[in-house]
Fold:
Amino acid sequence: MSEGDVLGSSPGVANSASSPTSASLPHRRSFLRWLLRGLETVLAAVLGVPTVVYFLSSGRPSTRPQGFRRVAKLSDILLQGKLSAKTGKRVYEAVIRDVRRDGWTLFPNEIIGRVWLVLDVHRPLDPNQPDETLVAFTSVCPHLGCAVGYDAENERFSCPCHAGTFDISGRVLEGPPSRPMDRLEIRLVADPSSSAEKQDYFVEVRYLDFVPDVPEKIPKA
Amino acid sequence: MWQRLRDWLHDRLGYRELMHILTLDISRLGQPWRFVWASALSCVLIVLVVTGIMLMLVYSPGVSTAWGSVYYLQYEMHFGWLIRALHHFAAQVFLVLLAAYLLFLVFVGLHLPPGEVVWWTALLLLAVAFANDVTGNPLPWDQKGYWALHVELNIVGGIPGLGSAVRQWVQAGNEAGQLTLTRLYTLHVFILPAITALLLLGHRLALRRYLQRATTITVSSLPSSLAGGHKVLARLVVLSILLGLCFTRNAVPLGITSETSASQPDAMTASEMTWWQRFAWLGRWGVGALLEAPADPSRDYPIARPKWTYWFLFELRQSLEGPWAAWATVFGPVIVFLVLFLLPLAGRGRARQPIYVLSVVLIISLAIAVSFLIARTWWKDYGPTETAEKFRAEVHQQRQLAQRAIILAFQGIPAEGAAELLRRDPLTRGRELYRTHCASCHAFGMTIPASNPVAPDLENFAKPDWIYRLLQNMRDEKSIESQVLPQMASWLRREYDRAARADEKERMAGVTPQAVAKLEEDLRLIAEWLASHPRRPVPSEGPERETFDKDPSLFARGYRAFEARCLRCHPYNGLGGGDTKGPDFTGYGDADWLRGLLHAPFEMSYYGPSMVRWSRNPIKRAWMPAFRDTESTNAALWQRDLERLLQQLQERVPEDDPKREERWQVLRQACTWLPLSELDRELIIRFVLGDGRLVFGGPSVAP
Ligand code: FES
Structure:
C-alpha cells in the first residue's frame, strides 16, 4: 500500500527514493529500502488483485436448461384460444415456468416467459411434423424486448413500447422491429391419459432468448 | 507536461496550500520510529474503507436478505471470502492498534498541553471505532450477531435516563428487526465513518500544530533518512498479520467433496476447479470470517457472546451482581473515559510532571485490567474446565447448524428469507418434527428412541435392507412387526413352513434342497424392487408381456417375484389384489405414497383396519392416526371423508362378532386425525426418506 498516511506524515516526501539525503546513503541502507519496497509491492498485489477480481466478478452464473418444456395441451388451444375470423387460426398464450435464481434467492416456480401459440384449425395435424399447423412465438419483442400482446380486435400482435405490430404469422406490419417475431422450436407429445379416438397432445417448446434489434435471429449465448 | 497539468490545477484550485496544511514531514523531526503507529493505522484504515465499499457491492440490508447476501459474498463471489475476512479482521486490528496508539501518546506525553486536542480526537476515534464495531457485527444477521445485538440493546436500554430512548431509536420497533438493521447499516457505512473522517482531520491538524511548536521533543539518535523504511516496515508487519488472520479457518466449510454429492447437485467439485478457482473460492473450505446460521428469534442460541473486543465489559458484568452490574458495564467505562478525557486539563504548568506520571500509571493499569478481563473470558470458554467443554460442545452444535444452513443456501435461499433455510430443512426441522409427532411409536435408529415402541423403526425406511429385515422380523411372533401386521406375518410364517417341508422332502429324496433358499432370494428381490418405489405399468398379457417375461432387468425380475408371491393380496398399478387386500404397492415408500398413508392410513389401499389392534389392554390398543392439516380449507371436506371411511370399516366387522359394539368403538377412536400442517408433513416425509432438499412453499418445479 503506497497510499499516503492519514494520521501521521506526508505521503510523498518521506517515502520517495529521491529524497535529498538518499544519495549519501550507504549501499546497505538503500538495498534494505528497496527490499522493503519490493515486499510491500508484493503484499499490495496480494491484496489488490483479488480485490479487483472481486470487483469485476458477479457471482454464480445462472444457467437455464435449453431443452423442451411442456407449456400447454393442444385441447387448451382449441378450447381457449382466441379465434381469428380472417385466418381461421386460434391464438393462445402459454406461460413458461421454471426455477429462477436471483443472486442468492431461489424462486422454485416462477413465470420466466410467455409464448404465443398459433394453431391453424383448418389444416390437418401431423403430430410428427406440427410446424405447418402450430406455430410458437416468444412474446419477447425482436425490437428491444418488451412483451408483445395479442390485439384480438385487429387480429394481430402488437408491442406496447414502440408500437411495433406483427400479423398473425409474425411478420412485421409497422414499427421499428427489424425482423419478424421469433419462432420457437415445437414438438408434440401424446397425452397418455386421453382416449385413442380423441387423442390429445402436450405442446412442448424450446424456449430461448434472442439478440434484440438485429435483422437476424441469433440465440443469446 | 505532468508538471504543467499540476500547475494549472493548482492555479484553479489552490490545492497546494491545503496539502501543505494537511501534510507534515515528520521525518525531519527525527523521530520516525514514533510515528510508525500512524502509518500502520492509516494503512489498516484504508483496507477497512476499500473492503467496506467492496462489501457494499453485494450486501443487502434486510432481515430476509442480509444473511443470504453475506453467504453469497463469502461462498459464491470470487475472493469474497478474502474481502470479508480482511474487513472483519482489519476492524479488530484497527481497534488494537488504536488502543496501542493511545498508550504511545500517553508515554510520550502528547496528551498534555499543548496536545489536548491530539489526545481528545484520538480518544474519540477509539470510541467511534468501538461504535463502528458494535454496529457492524449484527449486519450479517446471523445467530451470533443477532443475539449479541439483542443483549447489547438490553444493556443500552437499561441505562437510566437516555438509555431507553436510544434503544428505541436504534431498534425502531418492539424488537430488533428490519428498521434496526437499516439503521445500524446507515450508522456503520455512513454516519460513523463520516465522524471518523472529521476526527482524523482534527487529529491531523492538532498533531501538526503540536509538532510545529514542539521544541521539547528530543532528537533521536536514529538517522532521519530511514524514516520511509520504518513506515514501510510497519505497514508490512501489520498487513502480514492481517493477511495471516484472513487465512485462518474460522468459517464453516461448504463440505466440498471430491465427487458430486446428491445433496449438492450443482456444486462444483474440488477436482473440477483450477487452482485459481480454488483460491478464489477458498471460503468454501472454511477459510475466512465466520458466518453463523441465519438469525432466528425462535431458535435459541446458547452461546451468545459479544465479540472478544467487548469481553472486558462482559466479564465485568458477569463478575458483579445486582445494581453494580449496570454500573460496571455502563458507568464504569463512561467514568474512565471522562477521566482520560479530562487528564490534559489537569496537566498544566507545574502539575504537568505529576499528571504525566499519573496518566502513565493509569493507562498501564487500564491496559492490564482490560487484557486480564479478556483473558478470563477466554479461559472460561476455551480453558480446560468442564464448563468450557460444555460451551465448546454447544459451539460445535451451532457450527453444524451453520454448515447445514450454508449447504442449503448453496441450493438457493427461499424468498421468504434465510431463516427459513433451517425451518424448512428436513434434516434439522424434519427430525425435530419426527420426534414430536412420530417418535411416540416409531423409533428412528439409535438417535430417536420411541417412548412406546409399538411400530417399526423407520430409520432407512423403504431401503432394501429395511424391507427385508421387516419381513424377517415377522417370522418372530413376538416382534412388533408381526403384531402390527398379523395377517402378513402369519402368511409369511406359513410360507416358510411350506418351504421347509418341501426342503425336507427333497433332502429325503437326496436332492439339494432349494425351496427356502428360493423363497429368501425372492424376498430379497422383492425388497429390492419395492425399494425402487415402482410405479411403472406392467403389461398383463399379449406379446408385450412375453417380452417382459424375458426381460432380465431388475425391475422385471423384481416384479415377477412380486407377482408370484404377493400380487394375490397386494395390488400393483391396477393389477392383482384379492379380497384379503393388503396395501397397494404402486410407488411403495415414495413421497407420494407416504403422503397418502399419512392422510389416511386406515384407507383400504393402505393398511385398512389392520392398522387397529384389537387388544383388550388399552395401552396395547394402538393405531396409526391420520395426520391432516386441520387449519386447511379442506378440513371440513376431509371430515366427511373420514366418516365415510369409518362407515366402510365398521361394515367390515362381521355381524355375528360378539364384540361388535366394542370394535366399533375402537374403530371410531382410531378414525381420528391429528393436526399436522402440510409443510410439517413434507418435512417429516423427506426426513424419513433421507431427502435433504429444502421444502419450498407452493407447487414447485424444483429443486
Ligand atoms: S420493443 Fe417492441 S417495438 Fe420496440
